[in-house]
Amino acid sequence: MRRNLCIWLLAAIVPTLAPSQSSRRMTGTVLLPDGKPAEGAVVKLESQTGEIRTALSTASGAFQFSSLLNDTDYQVRARLGELESEKARWSRWSSRSEREVILKLRYVRRAANSGF
Question: Which CATH fold topology does 21-107 show?
Answer without folding.
Answer: Immunoglobulin-like (2.60.40)
